[in-house]
Amino acid sequence: MVHVILSIDTEGDNLWADQRGRSFDNIEALGEFQTFCEGLGLRPTYLVAHEVIADEKARDTILRLEKNGNCEIGSHLHAWLTPPPYAPLDELGTYPFLHEYPQEMRAAKLERLTEDLEDVLGRRPTSYRGGRWSIEAFTMGRLESLGYAVDTTVTPFVSWIRTLGAAEGGPNCTTAPHTPYYPHSADPMRPGAMRILEVPTSHRPPLRATDGLYRWAGSALGGHRWAWSVVGRGLGVLIGKVISPNPAVTPTEGLLRVAGRILQEEPAVLNLCIHSSELVAGGAPWIREASDAKAVRQRFRDVVGFLSSRCEWRALTLSEYAREQGTSGGR
User: Fold this and answer.
1) What's the CA gap between 117 and 121, in Å, rounded?
2) In the CATH hierarchy, which fold is given to the domain comprising 2-204+242-327?
3) pLDDT digits (tens, 9 = 90+) for 149-176
4) Does residue 84 have a cis bond before it (omega within 30 degrees)?
């Protein structure tokens, strides 16, 4: 049995062009997308950023999705847009990572996002993804203490160290497990005994035989940004780039290659990820026309068709999957 998860960073329009997230036209389209997902048998998890619920019209859409019952509303934190404000980083215009903030400010932003979502939903969110893939031990510990059941920030085989925030690079996830696990309290990239479940995204190298090379590079290069610039490109040329499980940026061929790999894994969990703005024309630099958005939906159909022709599969939200793991002895 393959479990299929669709995790959606739910945020403002085209943050690649407007880092303040001041418009939310893409949120209005989520009702139609939810109907599309239900037609395919998918149960999306909408990981909602604070700026979305701060907008009255967008907030109403999120509430309608919450009442739908065939999806889940979780949380997604853009550090520079989530209160309380921290001027030394928020105003730089550099998309800072949450892990660049002082610990007390990280804690305050996580608490504010969680509490404000609870006020909107009438319940506390239990699923989370860090904006710009930011995750480290302190944040994972705070998520656990706030009652989150599941995180989905880890991108196995991928290092974000070359992606700059205010001054630092992103996390190095290359050595992290590629199937769900309970993280270690000192390092979310390795298994341990925390209560929160990590469900990694389904990033995969094109060939299973090359997995070890990516893990070796991640371990050997660590946080050396310039070394990654050379070695990362070299690995991509020699053995192929790690495939993203995002239907907005990966063609059908790559998505089916990832899905085919998942079929051979245990547990078999396909965690597709996408930004809400990538579902509409003009919502991202690479989704410019209506035809681009239509192609994204076709890729979803192609993945579902592929799975249906080869295996039994079941769609779950992130928290549904976490609950099943907790009750089935997965903990």
Assistant:
1) 6
2) TIM Barrel (3.20.20)
3) 999 999 999 999 989 899 999 999 999 9
4) yes
Query: Which residue blocks in 241-317 are alpha helix, DSSP H?
Result: 252-263, 290-310
pLDDT at residue 323, as a whole number: 97
Do residues 264 and 218 touch, judged by C-beta distance below 8 A?
A: no
Helices (H), 156-224: 211-221
Distance of CA 252 to the CA centre of its chain: 19
Q: CA 271 to CA 196: how far, in whole Å?
A: 17
This prediction's pTM: 0.96
The encoded tokens of residue 21 equal 């997230």
What are the residues whose beta carbons fall under 8 Å from the beta carbon of 138, sequence distance 6 or more? 99, 103, 106, 107
The confidence band for 329, taking pLDDT boundaries of 50, 70 and 90, is: very low
DSSP-derived secondary structure letter, 61: H
User: How do the domains of the chain map onto residue ranges?
Assistant: 2-204+242-327
Residue 122 burial (C-beta neighbours within 10 Å; 0-12, 13-18, 19+): exposed
Residue 84 neighbours by CB distance under 10 Å: 10
- Burial class from Cβ neighbours inside 10 Å (0-12, 13-18, 19+) for residue 32 reads exposed
